[in-house]
Amino acid sequence: MTVEAQQFTATANDLARKRSVHRALTAKIPAEKGQSAWELSHSRPHPNLGDNQVLIETSYVALNPFDWQGVAFKYGIGEEAKVMGRDGAGVIVDVGKEVKRFKQGDRVWFCANSSASGTGAFQEYSVHSASEIGHTPSHLTDEKAATLGTGLITAGVALFRTLGLSLDDLDPQRAAKQQQRARAPRAGADDAPWLLIWGGAGITGVYLIELARLLGYRVICSASPVNHEYVRSLGADVVLDRWSDPADLVKSIRKATNDNVRIAIDNVGGKTAALCHQVLRGSASWRKENDVSVDSDDDTTPGQLVPLAGSPKEITTSSSDGSDSDAVRKVDSLRISFSTTFYNHPEFSEALLDKFDKLLESESLTPARIRLVPGGLSGIERGLEDLRHGRVPGGYKLVARLSDTPDLGSLSGQAGGTKRSREEIELGNEEADGETQDDKSAEREEQTQAPSKKRTKTADASNGTVEAETVGSKRAKEEQPDDKIPPTAEANVQTTAQPPARSAIVA
Ligand SMILES: NC(=O)c1ccc[n+]([C@@H]2O[C@H](COP(=O)([O-])OP(=O)(O)OC[C@H]3O[C@@H](n4cnc5c(N)ncnc54)[C@H](OP(=O)(O)O)[C@@H]3O)[C@@H](O)[C@H]2O)c1
User: Fold this and answer.
1) How high is the pLDDT of residue 208?
2) Is the CB of 126 under 6 A from ligand 1?
3) Rounded-to-integer distance, Cα 443 and Cα 431, Å
4) Does 341 sit in the ligand 1 pocket, CB within 6 Å?
5) How far apart are CA 360 and CA 223, in angstroms?
6) Res. 54: pLDDT tops 90
7) Residues 268-326: pLDDT tens digits?
8) 2-24 burial string, b = 16+ CB within 10 Å, else e?
9) Domain check: are 171 and 102 in the same one?
10) Residue 494 domain-assigned?
11) Does 318 lie in the same domain as 195?
């Protein structure tokens, strides 16, 4: 760039900031096939502040599966560019006149409603209802606080609204004791109820494990072997190898829990939700074969399933008319809803967030591990591709630092500010075409359980375009061409396959 061009660019950047405009990542349905849905704007006006809202200057945002799903399956976006994003952390710079819970200068984290552009997370300034954000304690960095948003709020809504557990049981005093207990080796003679989490190393799984233990449940979950130690450190009692044969997994869960799991939360998709359903209904024949008896009261209460990523598919029954004579209990499948419980429901959202404030302050809750995507807002599109194609190791949340976003003039007109090969762009659209919202969990399962040709094609396309010491830098190593090879975590990046554990139960 010439000196004149540089000077012009610097002046343009200064002027933009003075005019109360800021940088934001928007998405819209592309006008033409092959175009990126994402665009980085440098001149988005600051959003208007409502009486019950706060204006937040965001320093870090975090990436969610929902962010790519909305764009790929065209829900929550339209023809007009809209600011996307759910999770972030920063500082309050202005408060509406009705706001009591917060003041200017408070550090906060949020799970944005993102129904309108002003509330989307992927921008430097956004507005949020004061009843829907949490305080960031002084010991927590914004980088870590940004990971809390959707994962922690989903876990809270699932447990305390969808399943109807009592928030009063999440007492911070009790939590401190529970946490010590969670870190201590299990005594083995516990009669606390079981809670099954399919996908324990996903971000929602991480927070579910922590909250379930703080509520006094015994947790059984599935995860890749490389994450077993991690999920155990959060409080999981029994961890199953997610790469084992599904029928073996169901049997292992029955064995570990005496066929007495009455609550299950699935974070993966319809097929694994169906496995949870199978566990919850219990099995008369398995009990007979294994000489196991369960208190009959436990069987009269229906099992409760919360399928977060798709309704149970292909539920197996033992007879052709769909009845199931082997089942010992009924199963209720419960739908989670943020709009009828959390957003615009201050009586619940404030009570939940006040509890979380206390648990975070007392360090009874540990935020998920993080990985920084390069380029701030301009790196988000790329990070979402990594999430979509199962290239992010479990228990890690991708975060972007907004100050890393390149200024005007340094982007060279690339879509979303990140250079992508034509092949990758085409692949993204090809996959989205013709799919419905319900297909999203199926796609996730296909990519995470048995990485397909699609995944290999993307891996080839993405080679050689990544930066150092970022999620992108590890991409080439993490791409596993062999469908059978489970992914590895950052500290354990390996080029060779890790052999599957002999037994599904490893702890
Ligand atoms: N309905 C709602 O309101 C709502 C709210 C939040 C999330 N969700 C949905 O729930 C899903 C999870 O979200 P998230 O943010 O928690 O995801 P995430 O952090 O991206 O989860 C990724 C992890 O899931 C694990 N996983 C994938 N397939 C698995 C399988 N077959 N068995 C066991 N574990 C498996 C993997 O763990 P390993 O590395 O151990 O293999 C992977 O690392 C997404 O589809 C999201 O859209 C829905």
Assistant:
1) 98
2) no
3) 9
4) no
5) 25
6) yes
7) 999 999 999 999 999 999 999 999 887 777 788 899 999 999 999 876 665 566 667 89
8) eeeeeeeeeeebeebeeeebbbb
9) no
10) no
11) yes
CA–CA separation, 19 and 194 (whole Å): 56
Q: Is the C-beta atom of 387 inside 6 A of ligand 1?
A: yes
Q: Is 149 in the pocket of ligand 1 (CB under 6 A)?
A: no
Q: How far apart are CA 126 and CA 143, in angstroms?
A: 17
Cα 268 to middle of ligand 1, angstroms: 5
Residue 85 sits in a domain of what CATH number? Answer: 3.90.180.10
Closest ligand 1 atom to residue 204 Cα is 16
Looking at residue 275, its amino acid is L
pLDDT band at 486 (very low <50, low <70, confident <90, very high): very low
Task: Look at residues 333, 354, 377 and tell me which one is the last residue of a structural domain.
Answer: 333
Residue to mutate (ligand 1; options 71, 267, 386; most atoms within 8 A of CB):
267
- Model-level pTM? 0.81
**pLDDT for residue 215:** 92
Q: What is the CA radius of gyration of the chain?
A: 23
Q: Whose CA is nearest to atom 33 of ligand 1?
A: 199
| Closest CA to ligand 1's atom 39 | 394
Give the pLDDT confidence score for residue 181 in this predicted structure: 55
The ligand 1 atom nearest the CA atom of 224: 40
Q: Ligand 1, residues 308, 443, 485, 492: which to mutate, most atoms within 8 A of Cβ?
A: 308
